[in-house]
Amino acid sequence: MIRVVPVLLATVITQVIGSLWYSPVMFLDIWTRHAYPGTKPADVGKDSPGFLGCAYVMSTISSAATAAMLGFLLQALGDDLMYWTVVLCVLIAAVQVPHFAFEQRALALCLVNVGHDVVVVATMSAVILYMS
Fold first, then answer.
1. pLDDT tens digits for 24-44?
2. Where do the H-state alpha helices sit in the chain?
3. What is the per-residue burial (b if ≥16 Cβ within 10 Å, else e) of 9-19?
4. What is the pLDDT of the chain when averaged over all its residues?
5. Rounded CA gap, 51 and 55, in Å?
6. What gap in Å lies between CA 15 and CA 4, rounded to an integer?
7. Alpha carbons 116 and 126: distance in angstroms, whole number
8. Distance between CA atoms of 56 and 90, rounded to whole angstroms?
């Protein structure tokens, strides 16, 4: 049975990471410059008011599903969860990088987005493993 508290805590922590990652404190300016060329960070989402809210809801659902899956994997893998998390993070990057290349998107945007995903999955695994 998956332990609910570690999954919920991992979800909340990764939402905090995402909020910081895509904030002016970290990578907002770089991300905006490459994801929305010619747009100021404060103007992202102004044309479609539900855009950011929908993105946040989908991010929370995705985080909770990923944390639940990692909680399930912990039962099967035990202490090897962190090893397989590294493998998963490499796969996450390997799958996403070609999309950025084919779309001819900036390497900086790729590094910000893929870096976020890798940090989030690694953090979730660490939280779930530590609390279990």
1. 999 999 999 999 888 888 887
2. 4-21, 28-35, 50-77, 81-102, 107-131
3. bbbebbbebbe
4. 89
5. 6
6. 17
7. 15
8. 25
